[in-house]
Every structure is written in structure tokens, then in C-alpha cells.
Amino acid sequence: ETNAQRRERLRLLALETIDLSKDPYMLKNHLGSYECKLCLTLHTNEGSYLAHTQGKKHQDNVKRRAAKEASEGPQPALAKPKVEYKKFVKIGRPGYRVTKQQDHETQQYSLLFQVDYPEIGVDILPRHRFMSAYEQRIEAADRNYQYVLFAAEPYETIAFKVPSREIDKSESRFWTHWNKDTKQFFLHLWFKPERSGPRQMGAPSLPPPLPGPPM
């Protein structure tokens, strides 16, 4: 067993045994990423955040925080501000269209997602995020795939299963757009070229969208 395999096995085991919802330093932001409030670091998924918490930097900061709190004595508890959450009655899945394209010069493949939200809630903007195969609980985890999630109240969250290939995040190759008039959300992404030499992978095929977990 290689070190990488061992780290991955321990990470998956920790994900099953550690309740991150009780971690006082974890913050999930509006983009679906995870922040460590103690170390001021940003992580793309729960697995990445969990790996960070097992590292030396985080562990040292936890010890320093504990020592500081012990020296200062107990502090009065601060009242948590009440946050009112809007409640929506789900009205089903949105309509969608996915277009596959290829740039023959760069040998890159792209996916253009169009999601229709004609009954979107007032002052609600559609959101999207990427999810690893190990975060979702709908299917058996397959490291060859990742998921793209789309959410907008009062619609159900939907997820598309796409190849787990590196995405080109350059300005001309990755963009989103919300058309307030037509109530359509667009996401266009390009996969970086495969590094396997002259042999190129075929265009990614997409199964129907899966019901997505809450974002």
C-alpha cells in the first residue's frame, strides 16, 4: 500500500467517523467551499478540510488557542444572533439542456449547461458547485467522476455526473451567466487536454441528472 493510498483510506475512514458539523472552526461559505476559521484556509470539499485538520499547522493552532483560552479563564457566552431562513415548498426539478462541444485546435471538450428557472423565488440567484464522488451518497463512489450541482429555490437541487478531469478555469474557458429576463442560468466549462500523449479521450457522455444533496 502506497502512502497516497494509505492517506486516502484514512481520509475516507475519518469522513465516516468524524462529525464535521460539530467542528467549531469549519465554515461552509455561499460557494459551497469550506473555510477553516482558525487557520484562515479555504478548501474545496469536506475531504480536503478534514485532511487539513489532521495536519501540523491546524493542530498547532488548536493547541495555541486552547492555551490562550486557559490563560484567560472562562469567557461569558455571547448570544448567537438569530437568523431567519426562508422556507420554500419544493416544486420539482428545473428544465435543462446540456451541449457538448470540441475545440479541434486544443483538443479540449466543453459542456454548456442551461438550466431553466421560470418560477425562481424573489431575490434568489441560482448557485452551482462541484462535488467529488466521495461527498455524495446517491451512488457508489467512483473516482473517475465528479458532480456539478445546480440549486435555486423553490426548485430541487440537480446534479450532473461528469468526468473527473481537470477543468480549465481561465477567463475565456469558464463562465456563468444568469439571464434575469428569460430566467435561465448558464455555466460553460472546458476540460483541460488529456496528458496521455497523442491518444485523446472521447467527448464526455452525460447520464440524466441525479437528485442533488443540499448545497
Keywords for this structure?
215 residues; alpha+beta; five-stranded antiparallel beta sheet; four-stranded antiparallel beta sheet; single chain; 19% helix; globular
Quick structural gist:
The protein has helices at residues 3-17, 46-53, 56-72; strands at residues 26-28, 34-36, 41-43, 95-103, 108-116, 127-132, 145-151, 158-163, 167-168, 174-179, 184-191, 210-211. The chain has 215 residues and is of the alpha+beta class.
Itemize the secondary structure elements and their pairings.
Blueprint: H1 3-17, E1 26-28, E2 34-36, E3 41-43, H2 46-53, H3 56-72, E4 95-103, E5 108-116, E6 127-132, E7 145-151, E8 158-163, E9 167-168, E10 174-179, E11 184-191, E12 210-211
Antiparallel strand pairs: 1-2, 2-3, 4-5, 5-11, 6-7, 7-8, 8-12, 9-11, 10-11
The proportion of residues forming helix, as a percent range, comes to 10-25%
pLDDT averaged over residues: 82
Range of strand content = 25-35%
Number of strands: 12
| Alpha plus pi helix count | 3
Notes on the protein architecture:
With 215 residues, this protein is of the alpha+beta class. It is 19% helix and 30% strand. It has three helices and twelve strands; from the N terminus they run H-E-E-E-H-H-E-E-E-E-E-E-E-E-E. The strands form three sheets. Strands 4, 5, 9, 10 and 11 form a five-stranded antiparallel beta sheet that branches. A four-stranded antiparallel beta sheet has the order 6-7-8-12, with no helix packed on it. It has a three-stranded antiparallel beta sheet with strand order 1-2-3. Strand 2 (34-36) and strand 3 form a beta hairpin. Helix 1 (3-17) crosses helix 2 (46-53). Mean pLDDT is 82; it is low at 198-202.
